[in-house]
Design a protein that fits this description.
The protein is α+β, with helices and mostly antiparallel strands. The chain is built from two helices and four strands; from the N terminus they run ββαββα. The chain has a four-stranded antiparallel sheet, with helices on one face. The relative contact order is 0.27.
Length: about 80
């Protein structure tokens, strides 16, 4: 299984990680809101941090102990929501 474009495996291979940068806080927050709505629909919730115009994600399936196909699909959806 290939990692989605723009995403990387964190050291140790337990999660997919990626950062997104936006023009300002409002754009970053609007993006995060779109991600939250999608995550609720698919019942798979990302770990994230948000600092001003940057949102950092860490995707993992805790019950599986690492990255699963659900994480890869969520990563692709997040990229699509960001316009990447």
């Amino acid at each position: 299984m290939a990692d989605p474009q723009g995403w990387a495996l964190e050291e140790g291979g337990k999660a997919l990680v990626r950062s997104f940068t936006f023009k300002d806080f409002s754009e970053a927050f609007a993006f995060l809101t779109r991600v939250a709505l999608h995550a609720e629909k698919v019942d798979h919730h990302p770990e994230f941090t948000s600092v001003w115009n940057r949102v950092d994600f860490r995707l993992t399936s805790h019950d599986a102990g690492g990255v699963t196909e659900r994480d890869r699909r969520l990563a692709e959806a997040i990229s699509d929501l960001a316009g990447n």
